[in-house]
Structures are given as structure tokens and as C-alpha cells.
Amino acid sequence: MDVINLGATEGLAPVNWANVVEKLDAGSPLAPTLTTLARRGSRR
Fold it and tell me: In b/e form, how buried is each residue of 20-38, taking b as 16+ CB within 10 angstroms?
């Protein structure tokens, strides 16, 4: 699978999704500052 780093122009490294899955599987909650947006842009 090819990796497309959308944050490359800001100097961000690609996300290592295996690490994310490992943390979530271990029971680590999402960061409280993260939010999801509805299609119209409002917070859920």
C-alpha cells in the first residue's frame, strides 16, 4: 500500500497506523482534544 502524507508540506511525518491500532487495542482512549466534524462542518 502506498502512503500519502497529507501533512508533508507542514513537515509532519506520516501516521504509523499500526501504533494507533496497538494503543486503541490496549484500551487507550482517544485524546480529549480530538473531535469529529459532520459533513456540514459542525462538531458532533
Answer: eeeeeeeeeeeeeeeeeee
What is the distance between the alpha carbons of residues 27 and 5, in angstroms, rounded to a whole number? Answer: 27
pLDDT tens per residue across span 3-20: 889 899 999 999 888 888
The answer to whether 44 and 36 are in contact (CB under 8 A) is yes
DSSP 37: B
26 alpha carbon, distance to own chain's centre: 17
Query: What distance in Å separates the CA atoms of residue 26 and residue 39, rounded to the nearest whole number?
Result: 30
pLDDT for 8 equals 92
